[in-house]
Amino acid sequence: IPFRLWGALIEQDIWRQQLWQHRNGTPSIDRITRLSDWLQGNFSAVWQAISPLPQPAPTIRWRRGSPSRSPVIQRAQMIELETATGTATVALVLSVVPAPAEQLLIGIQVGTMGTAAALPDPLQVQLLDPQGAVLEQGRDVDLDTDLETCYLEIEGVAGEQFQVVLTTDRDRRVYQFAI
Q: Phi and psi at residue 137, in whole multiples of 5°?
């Protein structure tokens, strides 16, 4: 590989991670989930309705106040993450709300499920743009339920893409979304 190309590859965190995962034979990125399809009621089988999830299930806490617009579409995906102490199950919950000017308001939450009181430690949750630049990251505690959650928010228009990355000391999952 020419030096300039190699430099460009290792400069981007997400590309470096994908190279590492490809070399080790591990899956790197799930296919793209198109959130605009959710508005038409089209969901892939991995995205479950909130009601059948184990309780207590995490709920979205909007930073800008609860949206009065409807419909609010909420779906969740159960994820098993490998950690140094074993496997931890978390829920990746997305809430999608149509906003003015053909935008979507998207709430992203990673929370504990069932009787688990805490997210795996360490767990890093990041919101990335398509080039791999970090837009936001977070972790906090839901004081209403004492369940530990991580909450992020993004707004976008049709055609824009973003990634949600979950990283533990032994696992890394990348989920791609298109609006």
A: -150, 155
pLDDT tens readout for residues 157-166: 988 999 999 9
Which residue would you say has higher pLDDT here, 104 or 63? 104
C-alpha span between 34 and 24 (Å, rounded) = 28
Gap between the Cα atoms of 106 and 62, Å rounded: 10
pLDDT tens for residues 38-47? Answer: 988 999 888 9
Give phi and psi for 121, each to the nearest 5: -120, 120
CA angle (82 as vertex; 132, 154 as ends), nearest 5: 35
Cα–Cα–Cα angle for 97, 99, 103, nearest 5°?
A: 100
**178/92 Cα distance (integer angstroms):** 16
3-state secondary structure of 18: helix
